[in-house]
Write a structure and sequence with these properties.
Rossmann fold; seven-stranded mixed beta sheet
Length: 259
């Protein structure tokens, strides 16, 4: 696997919203099944939306790539693909190195903070696709809009930019459908571990995780409405912009760079 490549100038570490902290990252990696309902359905749907044959040697950009779950899903489906992993967290980088070591030179690790507009300096395209999962909501809205344009410039004609992320919804939606989210988490815990957890056990574990992963003071996510983010993709020049999958306040949307 290619060695991590870092720019000379680092962006301010607090732009990571606490995701540079080892304990916080370790908890997320271990407990993501409790935090994100339908986690594996989302990961696989991202790759299901790729229109290329699975033996094609596609190039993919994985943004806010974290511990490598998306990159691994891509490479398990596309064995001749190459992926550029991009994330500003060195704690995540450590997990990704171990997880992705088996893929060798098919993975390039770039320790870059997406909050820094210079994240793509010396990055050579074009790419068939860019993807991101549960990451971009940490960026301010202005920066997310800029990132759409930056990614557009890195894709080949016909290239695809997919984002799997949290979207803004009414508080009433979350309260009313909480049992639905809990059931989805129960199902994936059972499928992954064979363990059966009651709803009360699920909620208690989630509360413990929230305590362990408490966000640093003054740091918050920037969760935006779905329609607003679809407009950002259109403004950047993407066509066929749409939401391709949704479950409560999680969605997958994106668009295609015109030929």
């Amino acid at each position: 696997m290619a060695e991590p490549n870092e720019p000379n100038e680092q962006a301010e570490p607090d732009t990571l919203c606490g995701w540079g902290e080892q304990n916080r990252v370790d908890t997320f990696v271990e407990k993501s099944d409790f935090i994100i309902p339908k986690r594996y359905e989302q990961l696989h749907t991202l790759v299901d939306l790729f229109p290329w044959a699975t033996d094609d040697p596609i190039r993919v950009l994985d943004l806010g790539a974290g511990y490598g779950a998306v990159t691994e899903t891509i490479l398990s489906r596309y064995p001749h693909a190459t992926v550029v992993w991009v994330d500003g967290s060195h704690a995540m980088l450590e997990h990704a190195q171990a997880r992705l070591a088996q893929y060798g030179q098919q993975v390039q690790l770039l320790a870059r903070d997406l909050a820094d507009p210079l994240w793509a300096v010396d990055l050579s395209g074009p790419f068939h696709a860019a993807v991101s999962a549960i990451a971009l909501h940490h960026l301010p809205d202005t920066r997310k809009r800029q990132l759409c344009r930056e990614v557009f410039g890195l894709l080949q004609p016909g290239g695809l930019f997919l984002n799997n992320d949290v979207i803004e919804g009414a508080p009433e939606l979350r309260r009313y459908f909480m049992p639905v989210a809990d059931r989805a988490i129960q199902d994936q815990i059972q499928q992954r571990t064979g363990a059966t957890r009651s709803r009360e056990q699920i909620q208690a574990e989630i509360e413990r995780i929230r305590t362990d992963m408490q966000r640093p003071e003054g740091k918050r996510s920037h969760i935006a409405p779905l329609e607003t983010q679809l407009d950002w993709w259109r403004e950047a020049g993407f066509g066929i912009v749409d939401c391709y999958w949704r479950f409560l306040n999680f969605a997958i949307w994106g668009g295609v760079k015109p030929d």
